[in-house]
Amino acid sequence: MWIIAVVLLIIAMLLWVVFRRDLQDQKKIATNDFIQQMTTSRKKDTLFDQGLQKLHIQQPKFQEMRQEMRKHIVGLDAFIHSLFVWLLVPWGHILVEWVPWLAKTKTISTLSKVLDLEFKRIQFTPDMLPWDILWVDVFSRDKKEFTFMEGPIFSQVILADEINRTTPKVQSALLEAMEEKQVTIGHVSYPLPLPFFVLATQNPLEQEGTYPLPEAQVDRFFMKVLLSYPNHQDEELMLQLIEHDLKQPQALLSTSELTQLQQSVAQVTISNEVKSYIVRCVDATRSSPLLSYGASPRASLFLMYGAKAVAWLQWRNYVMHTDVQMIALPVIRHRVVLQYTAISQWLLVDDVLVNILKKITLQWSSSSDIS
């Protein structure tokens, strides 16, 4: 009997080896087919090739922009990288949160000068009204009529400083301009200058007399970036830089060139596998027992365009799932709410999201379409 058992065991082991080799061969075939189809798709896409040529032309200038920013800003390389991603998504806005005096204003004003864009800073306070940022009617004694005068919202780069300190009426007026790229007064709509970017800041320490943004309004922001204190070396370098930083940032990119860059990013290819990976990452937040509710479909859209921008910044013409992972936390963290059980365990939103995203893997198929 034991001889028969040994023979059956040997046969089972042989079958397992054959089956495992077959799975590996199928995986290799699927991967090779995917790479071949991706290569074929790129060769046929002449518009993409033209966009890729523009990308290579802009590489030196974009690197020069990084160097120019580092001449005036110290210790915020990750924040500057997030701002570059933000600029390459034409209808994205960004929310920044941390304590005051971390060079948020200086960083965004320096970036606007490097891009030669008009910059306005709006300090939000509880006594503000919508027309303080939108418009004002000035009475002319000569013409005996009111004249429309544009408010600070009519700029290309807006720093909405401490947006949670103003009333919901003012917040909704700003968010309407962000979404529609126009200001409607009575029966007349006034378009905002393009490109139009809003960087809003929140101070999480002092909550007295503040008006937290509702979840539905926070969802309109492309990313939420969390800043931290600089390290010892960066803070020493910052003191030296402030003492000797007398030069104005040099304008290196025009509005038309920025528009061309955004068009190049839009032409970066993304496979159906990576799209499926994005959707599964967002969908996993909706079934987590540690979250009251998950991310909206807008998170999937921003993840796709954000991943394209991340790939472009690494001078690649296609998106990898690692690009999605790099942008996942800033895009998703403000679109979910923790359950009480997670709060009672002193868990942060990022802790929960990291554990969720670790379980999501990229799934390959034998046929893949590139878009």
Task: Describe the protein in words.
The chain has 2 domains: 63-267, 3-Layer(aba) Sandwich (Rossmann fold); 268-371, Magnesium chelatase subunit I, C-Terminal domain (Helicase, Ruva Protein, domain 3, Orthogonal Bundle). The protein is built from 13 helices and 11 strands. The chain has helices spanning 2-44, 46-72, 77-88, 104-114, 168-180, 215-218, 232-244, 255-266, 272-286, 297-313, 321-332, 340-344, 349-358; strands spanning 94-97, 119-123, 135-140, 145-150, 157-161, 182-185, 188-191, 197-202, 223-226, 291-293, 337-338. A hairpin with a 4-residue loop joins β3 and β4. α2 packs across α8 (255-266), α3 crosses α10 and α9 (272-286) crosses α10 (297-313). The longest helix has 43 residues, at 2-44.
Question: Concise description?
Answer:
The chain is an alpha/beta fold. Helix content is 52%, strand content 13%.
Q: What's the topology here?
A:
Elements: H1 2-44, H2 46-72, H3 77-88, E1 94-97, H4 104-114, E2 119-123, E3 135-140, E4 145-150, E5 157-161, H5 168-180, E6 182-185, E7 188-191, E8 197-202, H6 215-218, E9 223-226, H7 232-244, H8 255-266, H9 272-286, E10 291-293, H10 297-313, H11 321-332, E11 337-338, H12 340-344, H13 349-358
Parallel strand pairs: 1-8, 1-9, 2-5, 5-8
Antiparallel strand pairs: 3-4, 6-7, 10-11
Helix pairs in contact: 2-4, 2-8, 3-10, 9-10, 10-11
